[in-house]
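Intended use. Records like the one below are meant for learning the mapping from a protein sequence to its folded structure. Do not use them to infer anything beyond what is encoded.
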Amino acid sequence: MRAPARSSRHGSERAWAEPGVHDGARVPGSHLARYAALVDPDLSRAMSDALGARALSLSSVPGGDVHRALRAELSDGRTVFVKTSARAPADLFDAEAHGLSWLEEAGVLRTPRVLAVLESPPALVLEWIEPGSRATPQHESLGRQLAALHRSAAPAFGLDRCNYVASIRMENAPRADWATFYSEARILPLFELAVRRGDASPAMRRGIEALVRAMPERVGPSEPPARLHGDLWGGNLLWDAAGEPVLIDPAVFGGHREIDLAMMRLFGGFSQRTFAAYEEAHPLAPGHEERVALYQLLPLLAHVVLFGGSYVASVERALSEVL
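Structure written out for the chain above:
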């Protein structure tokens, strides 16, 4: 989920800090182990217990508005990525780990391998993805792989557990059809959160009420539930050393595949070649261009909840296009 005027919310930036550097200050190599202990001895111990190797260094990497994002060098030679937050809900990192594994099960699009979910302190340890700074991004490959991910399908519209978009808890109990799920599990709960926080305008209320009534006619032709990333903006895509795509920070569920594609168009960061390759591999239903605003309402409402009234006008504009 994109924060205003920031390039990442989840420690997902592609410009990683080098080992032994913290907030721009180099830590001498001979003091890396001591530095790691000073940063967070409980985290170092928990990582050692879970991974069977000591953390020789913990260095900050850019990103983490919501969580601390760290690169860890381990005593067995591995480099790993660590997300941690003292304020994280108890099940947040477990939900993210489940989402990564759920995407990986399809066997078509790479995600970082989950190495450990720590309870105290709460943290998620992932495979380190070496960025492909000199490799040519394989945009067509992303389109084809995303199409295959969506084709791999999901058991239902929803998911068998709750998860999170940034810090927003999402209830995913399956519904019988997509229009019902999109209304009851996404649009209405996010709108109600915006109301409780004082960031819902009268125009938003009128538009949401009208949209929910009309939802069955707005969502497009019936399709089976697709396996969705659920928060697919540019900051949640990495390119590995070979230029192949890697997806991170998912908010997975079974839903309409146009959700992911609409989110990809909202803030940019994706090549037109990606969309063309997707369309060739898995053509979209007629009228999909007119449904982009409908499916961008999900991230826009989430942004109202997370960042306040600056996104209200964007929601109102999207509603006017849909209705």
